[in-house]
Write a structure and sequence with these properties.
single chain; alpha+beta; Jelly Rolls; 2 domains; two-stranded antiparallel sheet; 28% helix; binds 2-oxoglutaric acid
Length: 250
Amino acid sequence: MEIFLKDLEKDGLTIFKDIFNKEDMRSLNYACSTLRPKVGNVRDLGWCNHKDVDELEKTHSLLTDVDWCYHWAETPEDNQIISNGILPVIASICDKVFTGKEWGWQETNKYVMSNFNHDQGVAPHLDAPYLWPQKLDCQMVKYLDQGILSLTFMIPLTNFTIENGATAYVPGTHKYIWDTSIWNESKVTHQQFFRDNYIQPSVEVGGFACFYGNTMHSVMANKTNEVRRGIIYRAIRQDALDEMERIGLG
Ligand SMILES: O=C(O)CCC(=O)C(=O)O
């Protein structure tokens, strides 16, 4: 565990191997393959929020008739593999990383992410509570106590490879404080910076990636015809969760 924590501190990212039962993960993948997409990117339509997806559903079967580049579905709440297998393991890592500080899961961001054959370019970003696309001037890192504000877990349900779009990261970017109020204006710079510096670690079923929310990362092209699927959970320090509640951020 200590070595993982050191990696996390140095790079903002660490990969755990052979933690979960592979058969469990494969059966979870099967169960998740029929979940209703909630939001995502559709070829020729672009990003669709939940209202757009509701509209699309009026005329299309979401799982069979829509040409997704990627979509996110809500993680099942009542799944034993998640509740008894995955959550206790990643919660114990949060207890270590947040060292005595209270934390909780971001309730609005427990997703199953399916990545289909596509090449939509990179979309480098930071996670909550470091970046709020709907409220770019909210920069909690600048006024809350110092220290880690969030930890994201990306748990593969299929092997994540360079070919099928394993998540990519820029190591060390958690050491910087970004001015998110100019995030949109800086998009082209971020994309170039990202393309010049990213790593794309493969993560096999049974393992998972764990990274600070302010480590720059991106969804990547899937050049295969297989679906790359994973579950994402995010832990957020309690004072940031309280602040989110106060401001009305999800
Ligand atoms: O699906 C991926 O590889 C990345 C997803 C992601 O970056 C996110 O949800 O913040």
